[in-house]
């Protein structure tokens, strides 16, 4: 017992050491680099400054909210549409035969490649960003839902039939819950991909958002702004994954308990 | 005893690209009301197919199955069986992993639209029958193999069907649990009599359980012989009559002991 605690403390110490070494290396590089790279302290100062001093009529918090809003709207639409399409493709052979090929053709195109076309079609307002994020998160949701439905143990379907389930009940009471873990995994991937897409879209053209802010940093030679944005982006990504994992556990208690 | 199921000249042939495979060849047999009938046959023969046809999961190539509902004034009331009217226990349990024990057991009544209070009450009854009172809210993943199959048996019972099909229900259990479950299932059946068709490839299990044993041949399956063990229950595996019958059946089949 006691050695276990000691061991854990040792591992914790190792982790802290690695972060410390990274900060030291960063400081060393920035000092010897002659001003191209800000020191960790300068970056932190810039971060505090960004909390109350607006850049392009918004603090970093406002820019973050703008980006998150775009992601969440698009993600919700993509979830509904994606789960619907995925279930239909997996459940209905005729539907799959008809729509499957179209989806297969469009699927491998990276969502970012859509940006120019989407901007041409939808202009530079909110819509194109939402559309890009939608494209980026729609595909993983469809794919995971589809394979989730396809990979259901046929024994469970048999059991459902024997218990008297009609076609509708088979879908809602057997197939959907059986593929819920796969659907949630798809949503997790989708949110990560959506977060990436929003940054890309904002970097191309935007007046607000973290992607815009990071490009503003580049244009004004403000590398500490860029680094602050990068760290914030990373933290938000981690937070998204963390909260979705929590949500997953809550939705599928049978998987962990 | 009156007949419950009458199977006449049942044949089943699977047609595939590689050719035709005949798995059931002219199977005719009657199942009596509330009897414990054992179908004994080697591994790869069509026992499961026969059960699937009886359950309505598959259709025969030719032949008929009549379910006799009742017998009034010497006139039999023959009816079509609908899905959900026959209970089935699967070798690999086929429990719904996202449902707790009680939710699994009440599934058939839920699918029939019976209100929650009533179906819970009935489910609790059957959970008690299989001795899992303290595990109502557990998920299948938390249970041992023997306990899982108890849930499977309770679920089949809870469909309130007077016919229960059991497809090698103890096939996935270790030997010790297997003996124990054999004893248990007879206890349950005595408390709540139903017509049971029990499939196995284990001669001892067949003799221990069956009111009547139908010996099936290898592929394609035909009815080879019928045995009626004249032994008092609980049967003693080491009794002379038991061993004699075991030898008699073993000599008549290619099953390994």
TrEMBL record, chain A:
The keyword Iron-sulfur does not apply. It is a multi-pass membrane protein. GO terms for biological process: alkanesulfonate transmembrane transport. Keywords: Cell membrane, Membrane, Transmembrane, Transmembrane helix, Transport. Residues 64-244 form the ABC transmembrane type-1 domain. GO terms for cellular component: plasma membrane. The keyword Transferase does not apply. SUPFAM superfamilies: MetI-like. Its main location: membrane. The chain crosses the membrane at residues 71-91, 103-124, 130-149, 193-213, 225-244. InterPro entries: MetI-like, MetI-like_sf. It is found in: Cell membrane. Belongs to the binding-protein-dependent transport system permease family. This is NitT/TauT family transport system permease protein/sulfonate transport system permease protein. It comes from Anaerobacterium chartisolvens.
From TrEMBL, chain B:
The keyword Ribosomal protein does not apply. Residues 5-243 form the ABC transporter domain. Coiled coil: none annotated. PROSITE patterns: ABC_TRANSPORTER_1 (PS00211), ABC_TRANSPORTER_2 (PS50893). GO terms for molecular function: ATP binding; ATP hydrolysis activity. Keywords: ATP-binding, Nucleotide-binding, Transport. This is NitT/TauT family transport system ATP-binding protein/sulfonate transport system ATP-binding protein. It comes from Anaerobacterium chartisolvens.
